[in-house]
Amino acid sequence: QVQLVESGGGLVQAGGSLRLSCAASGSIFRFKAMGWYRQAPGKQRELVAHFTSTSITNYADSVKGRFTISRDNAKNTIYLQMNSLKPEDTAVYYCNALGIVNYWGQGTQVTVSS
After folding, report:
1. pLDDT tens track for 43-55
2. Distance (Å, rounded) from C-alpha 60 to C-alpha 38?
3. Segment (H or E) for 109
4. Are strands 91-98 and 77-82 parallel, antiparallel or unpaired?
């Protein structure tokens, strides 16, 4: 059973920064892809950033240049560094891992005040 545990969300003012962490139970090498999604109230869940097992990295256009996804293989953890945050970044952020099935974390709330 794969477990993904997110942390690092919170309340921040516009222009501020947060770093999200997602710790996986076991090696992250086994996943075809890992990344971050977000869901704002009344909206569909959307991709924020992800990387594949071949190290291809993708970002949503809305976060390019502001967010950076990274990983620490030794800690089985991925991160999302979020800079220059905007109120429209407010959402629940979910960690995702694609293996035989899709795995999701429980989500962490990010709120950006104007």
Report:
1. 999 999 999 988 8
2. 11
3. strand 108-113
4. unpaired
